[in-house]
Amino acid sequence: MAKKIEISNLRVRYGQKEALKGVSFDVHKNEILGVVGPAQSGKTTLLKVINRTIEFIPGARVEGTVTIDGDNIQSIKNVNELRRKIGMVFPLPVGLPLSIYDNVAFAPRAAGLRDKSKLDELVERCLIQSALWDEVKDRLDSLGTKLSGGQQQRLTIARALSHQPEILCLDEFSIAVDPVTTMRIEDVLKELRSEVTIILVTNLVQQARRLCNRTAFILNGDLIEIDSNEVMFSDNPAQKMTYDYVHGNFG
Hints:
By secondary structure, this protein is an alpha/beta fold. The chain has helices at 43-50, 79-85, 100-110, 116-129, 133-136, 149-161, 179-192, 205-211, 229-232, 240-246; strands at residues 3-14, 17-28, 32-36, 60-68, 71-72, 86-89, 167-171, 197-201, 214-219, 222-228. The strands form two sheets. The chain has a six-stranded mixed sheet, with helices on both faces.
């Protein structure tokens, strides 16, 4: 399969603490790659490196290379252009104190889109893609922060899709939402897979098993194993630690 992201010998330190220890793997185009592992294993750090928000953390040091479509992300001078390629969805929905419409239109406007009809079309498409349109289409002028937690998380996904990213990174998106909403978002991600490459960091092993094409297991900053879900969740993954973790024997 075509490679969208190539990660080679990635090391990240926060002061004396090494969060990632020479991690290397590829992310295939138009796959959902799951990243699992206990808390403090380096999963969120990995996402921060990919969209270069790691640069906001004082004392963080990054070694190794990450390329997207063959381009080393550290060589990209326009960081905003890189981040427009990468949609981010965080554990807790953070709605802008704006209307539902303006939440979704914010990034396209910032990028220079002013045509009202094109904005309308984009907002509708993103809200449909995030399975929110039918619930909010008659109240687009109401505050996004007044939506329920599950609706706000789907609004966050719509906002992440509004700059038409090539990569979508989700960090524990289901922590703050109910099981029904979680399943709805999972259905959204399955549909989006044909359009974007998705990296799903999750502490829910069964979620990775349901959703992902492949899964990577990271433990204490080390990549223990990455393979197809058929292998990772079988009785015979390459590493016994993988078997123990995905079967709930530790972590």
